[in-house]
Design a protein that fits this description.
alpha+beta; Diaminopimelate Epimerase, Chain A, domain 1; 2 domains; 17-stranded mixed β-sheet
């Protein structure tokens, strides 16, 4: 018997947002192994990732996607992770270049384009609370905030200072846990306008409980904020430390798209002893 399990994992990233991916069509990985998922996402003793995804068969779409945050627990949606999953599903022959998938019983459409670009049609964003109602939460370093649901709850905070001067983990943790956003909390995106309808952005993600290099649903929230508060038109570029994502919208966001490159970094196999010890 081999010391390694036969089922591979795939390590992928979109704009530096990294994920562990499993082809789970055979059902070999239990979808409620939350503690196992948490340990796999740990950097030093596991594979290390911002999240984990299981790809399986669907009766209503090309494939089904289950997403888990780095804390091991299920998440509603992950834009960058979904784009990575679409690319992997196409690479493995699970889905055509133009495909559909379901996550938490919500259906999405996506397209694998040239040069590893994946374009994902998102849910229409919804305003939860506007800037004037949130202004009391913000210190003088910030001047606007927008609470948006893009399939995931996001707070977009416009900074008066370049983002190198923003303590993202301090203010991100403060806002993510603020009583106003209980019980579920929010992801917190800090933005600073650049040239040609672009934002520089940094994001504090719940579930990871730290800054990550990018966030796809957060990019959509930033694009929505730019259109509603700053009157920007499509497309909007959102430049994270890990890379650039583009948000395109039409018909007052009834058509909303997230676009950017993804990378399949490596394929690996877990040892039986390690997996049994999780």
């Amino acid at each position: 018997m081999s010391d390694f399990i036969t089922h591979p994992f795939y390590k992928m990233h979109g704009a530096g947002n990294d994920f562990i991916m499993f082809d789970n069509r055979s059902g070999w990985m239990a979808p409620d192994a939350y503690e196992k998922f948490r340990k796999l996402c740990q950097l030093h003793t596991g594979i290390g990732a911002d999240g984990l995804m299981l790809l399986s068969e669907s009766d209503n779409a090309d494939f089904k996607l289950d997403y888990f945050n780095a804390d091991g627990y299920p998440g509603n949606m992950c834009g960058n992770g979904a784009r990575c999953a679409v690319f992997l599903a196409h690479t493995l022959g699970m889905a055509p270049a133009r495909c559909s998938f379901e996550i938490n019983r919500v259906h999405y459409q996506a397209e694998v384009q040239q040069n590893r670009q994946v374009r994902l049609r998102m849910q229409m964003p919804e305003i939860v609370m506007e800037s004037q109602e949130l202004s009391s939460l913000l210190p003088g370093q910030f001047d606007m905030a927008y609470w948006v649901d893009t399939g995931v709850a996001h707070l977009v905070v416009k900074s008066n200072d370049p983002l190198e001067q923003v303590d993202v983990n301090k203010w991100g943790s403060y806002l993510r846990h603020h009583w106003l956003f209980r019980p579920d909390g929010v992801n917190v995106n800090f933005v600073y306008p650049g040239e040609h309808q672009s934002f520089h952005a940094r994001v504090y993600e719940k579930g990871v409980e730290a800054e990550t290099l990018a966030c796809g649903t957060g990019a959509v929230a930033c694009g929505f904020f730019a259109a509603k508060e700053l009157n920007w038109t499509s497309p909007v570029s959102v430049i994270f430390p890990g890379g650039e994502l583009r948000v395109e919208f039409e018909n007052d966001f009834q058509g909303t798209y997230l676009n950017g490159a993804v990378s399949l970094v490596f394929e690996g196999r877990l040892s039986r002893a390690y997996l049994e010890g999780l």
